[in-house]
Design brief:
Blueprint: E1 5-13, H1 41-56, E2 67-72, H2 78-91, H3 98-102, H4 108-117, E3 123-126, H5 132-146, E4 151-158, H6 162-168, E5 181-188, E6 194-203, E7 213-218, H7 236-248, E8 255-261, E9 266-274
Parallel strand pairs: 2-3, 2-4, 7-8
Antiparallel strand pairs: 1-5, 1-6, 4-5, 6-9, 8-9
């Protein structure tokens, strides 16, 4: 069995309500407002959470080339993607907006973070829908197990736009409404306040939680930070809640299972435990 990932620090940037944008005013503590003029909402959301996470960790945990960055996103920068699509329809491919195109690619947030933080280690973005978080955890574990990096800064970020909600309403099966948010974890091979011993994803009936495991099911009424809302990249909100519980209650010894059930008869989960 592979060694678990250890959580050294975490931070989230969340909205006050599912169908509303997150408050990004705290970003000015880390970045000059003038330098953010061309940085879109999606990248600001990720950048603020990354800054907050490293601040909680007490600063850079290692040399820039020994810190890997992996980012998970369900839909990517949908605002600028729609802007670029609109410019293509309005002006044709020869006159489409180059600015909108440059910020519409899914790895733009990871690029912005690595440049702003001066990271020179490996950088990777996964955009695999609801399984993106699980995929990013696999990448982080592989990097740490191989010795490629000493630490991994792992983030999950998605943004909300009303038009995306309209598109998802045409899905053949209902799914929880999307909410935007960013969660970043600083991961290592040992230490920290929590560990992630395992995660999984699949289709069909989700496996039952093991004995002594309490489930936090994202997107269900009364469970998670936003009842009836879910993060597009996987059980991000449930994982954030689990880490907050573990961080605030050193005596908590039960396993917290962060679950997300998908509209296409799929599931994803992450287990979190006290280190």
């Amino acid at each position: 069995m592979s060694a678990p990932l250890h959580v050294l620090a975490h931070a989230a940037v969340l909205p006050a309500a599912p169908a509303s944008p997150a408050d990004l005013s705290g970003l000015e503590r880390f970045e000059q407002p003038r330098s953010l003029r061309r940085v879109d909402h999606f990248c600001r959301l990720a950048l603020l959470a990354a800054h907050n996470c490293l601040e909680r960790a007490g600063g850079a945990p290692c040399e820039p080339d020994a810190l890997g960055l992996v980012l998970a996103t369900g839909y990517g920068p949908v605002r600028t993607s729609f802007d670029f699509s609109d410019s293509m329809q309005d002006f044709g491919p020869d006159l489409a907006s180059p600015t909108a195109f440059s910020t519409s690619v899914h790895n733009i947030a990871a690029s912005v973070i690595s440049l702003r933080l001066g990271l020179t280690g490996p950088v990777h973005t996964l955009a695999q829908g609801e399984s993106s978080l699980a995929g990013a955890l696999h990448v982080a574990r592989a990097w740490l197990a191989s010795g490629r990096v000493e630490r991994v800064l792992l983030g999950a970020v998605d943004e909300y736009v009303p038009f995306l909600e309209q598109l998802l309403s045409f899905a053949p099966q209902s799914s929880p409404p999307c909410a935007e948010g960013a969660l970043f974890l600083l991961l290592g091979r040992e230490g920290g306040f929590a560990r992630l011993p395992g995660w999984g994803m699949g289709f069909g009936a989700a496996p039952s939680p093991p004995p002594g495991c309490r489930a936090l099911r994202e997107g269900n009424e009364g469970v998670g930070p936003y009842p009836l809302a879910a993060h597009p990249a996987g059980p991000v909100f449930a994982l954030n809640r689990a880490l907050e519980e573990l961080r605030g209650a050193p005596g908590l010894r039960e396993t917290l299972r962060c679950e997300r059930l998908f509209s296409r008869d799929g599931w994803s989960h992450v287990h979190a435990q006290r280190a």
